[in-house]
Design goal:
Blueprint (H helix, E strand, L loop, with lengths): L14 H13 L4 H8 L3 H13 L3 E3 L6 E3 L2 H37 L5 E4 L2 H14 L3 E6 L10 H8 L3 E7 L8 H11 L2 E5 L6 E4 L3 E5 L9 E4 L2 H16 L2 E2 L26 H9 L6 H11 L4 H7 L4 H15 L4 H11 L3
Helix pairs in contact: 2-3, 11-12
């Protein structure tokens, strides 16, 4: 494609008209007849082009009637440039209006967008309730403050009764709310598979691996939540959940702290109950199973909770917690919490 060397094309002047203008500019004046002869054009076309250049302010009729003369370009071109700048400004002012119309046109072509952002807490709570109603097979959740729904939502119990596989990972900050430990234990007794981890990057709920609800803000009072049915995004969030699931600690089974510990049967004896994998480990290693209190302490300590939070959740005084933590360290032969975690994992206690 040949390079366009036209100087006045931006003003809408065709190349031939520009050549005519430059011809008149160089000569200082020219008649229509001279232009016809120079460019081998019919007189009607020349008059039409000359009048067009005159309308733009580039040429003027001579007072003697003998043809046309150029207008000083310092003024004529500046006036045209000012008009063009004003048109550009008007175009820029209209761009947002036209863009909004464009977006509305796209939105009207899609009956239900696959991804949207919610800012109303009531809308978020309503959608979370809808997910619990409509889930059929599997529900996965990250739990961390702040909350927009009440704890111990009865809809979850209904989902568990329907046989939904419900897995939840709780951040340590979840247990800073009084009574949270008892609530999670109650949900575990109803069938929830619960785990604990020091921290989670966001709040998340996924129903049947097909729709996800996730928080975009951790600020209390500021709700910004994304809901998506985009399958690639939902799949990525499922992978994120599984990543944290593998790295979190299991919640202990719901049993009273005062429940006596029943030692595993001696090697060679019969047991009426079918042994679990952990019981087989204890039998093979002659290591006693952990008490519920020991499991709870190990879980909360491993999640990084502070001692006062652990004491409040387990219904102990801080002094009692320190004493029982020390007893646990002695039992595990550990000098610090890290060693206690390693030994507890070796024994299959966590």
């Amino acid at each position: 494609m040949a390079e366009d060397n036209s100087l006045l094309r931006i003003m809408g002047i065709e190349h031939l008209s520009e050549r005519i203008f430059m011809f008149v500019l160089h000569r200082g004046r020219a008649t229509a007849q001279e232009i016809c002869e120079r460019f081998d054009l019919p007189e009607s076309e020349v008059h039409e082009r000359l009048e067009s250049l005159r309308d733009m302010g580039l040429l003027a009729r001579r007072s003697d009637g003998e043809g046309f003369a150029p207008v000083d370009p310092r003024y004529s071109l500046r006036a045209i440039a000012d008009r063009l700048n004003e048109s550009v400004r008007r175009l820029q002012d209209q761009t947002p209006v036209l863009a909004e119309r464009f977006d509305r046109g796209l939105a009207s072509q899609t009956e239900s967008p696959k991804t949207q952002v919610l800012n109303d807490p009531d809308a978020v709570a309503g959608l979370y309730a809808r997910l619990q109603h409509q889930v059929v097979r599997e529900f996965m959740a990250f739990d961390r403050p702040p909350y927009v729904t009440a704890s111990m939502d009865p809809l979850q119990a209904g989902s568990l009764d329907r046989g939904v596989s419900w897995r939840a990972i709780y951040a340590a900050s979840s247990f800073e709310v009084p009574g949270a430990w008892e609530e999670v234990e109650e949900l575990a007794s109803q069938g929830e598979q619960s785990r604990v981890i020091a921290d989670l990057p966001l709040k998340l709920a996924i129903a049947d691996r097909s729709i996800a609800l996730l928080s975009l803000s951790h600020e209390s009072g500021h709700i910004e939540t994304l809901v998506t049915e985009s399958q690639p995004l939902v799949n990525a969030l499922c992978d994120l959940f599984e990543f944290y699931w593998e790295r979190s600690l299991r919640m202990p089974k719901n049993r009273s702290f005062e429940e006596p510990v029943v030692a595993p049967p001696e090697p060679g004896t019969l047991s009426l109950a079918t042994p679990t994998a952990q019981e087989k480990l204890w039998n093979a290693s002659s290591v006693r199973p952990p008490t519920h209190e020991e499991q709870a302490l190990l879980t909360l300590i491993g999640a990084g909770l502070k001692d006062d939070v652990i004491a409040r959740q387990l219904g102990m005084s801080p002094r009692t917690l320190r004493r029982r933590s020390q007893d646990l360290m002695t039992e595990l032969g550990a000098d610090n919490r890290f060693q206690a975690g390693v030994e507890a994992s070796r024994r299959g206690w966590v």
